[in-house]
Specification:
Blueprint (H helix, E strand, L loop, with lengths): L11 E2 L5 E7 L4 E7 L4 E5 L4 E8 L1 E6 L2 E6 L3 E4 L5 E4 L6 E8 L3
Antiparallel strand pairs: 1-2, 2-3, 3-10, 4-9, 5-8, 5-10, 6-7, 6-9
């Protein structure tokens, strides 16, 4: 059994300026833990793979295509391939999400 302990993985600042932890990456899936501090944002972008977000902690605004909603802990948000997405920690709290891409990039 493989156990991934998110709290034990070192984070880094990704190309969008957000603290991230790569939890898993293989040909089938990529799982990133994104930690957005209040005021942080991941700008609009799209990827050619299926994506879903799982909100671990806090709340923030997630935009998928033309829809924008405040999401919070335990929400799962689906994003089709090649769809513009963005995240904002705009609720005055830390916004922690898992970003899962399949297949991996």
């Amino acid at each position: 059994m493989e156990i991934i302990r998110m709290g034990e993985i070192e984070g880094f600042i990704n190309k969008r300026g957000i603290k991230a932890k790569q939890l898993l990456k293989n040909d089938d899936v990529q799982i990133m833990n994104l930690i957005l501090n209040p005021g942080d944002a991941v700008p609009e972008h799209s990827v050619p793979v299926y994506v879903f977000f799982y909100v671990v902690e806090g709340s923030g605004t997630l935009k998928i295509g033309d829809e924008e909603n405040v999401v919070s802990a335990k929400d799962i948000i689906l994003c089709p391939r090649n769809t513009v997405m963005s995240l904002k920690a705009d609720q005055n709290e830390t916004f922690v999400v898992l970003n899962v891409k399949t297949p991996s990039l």
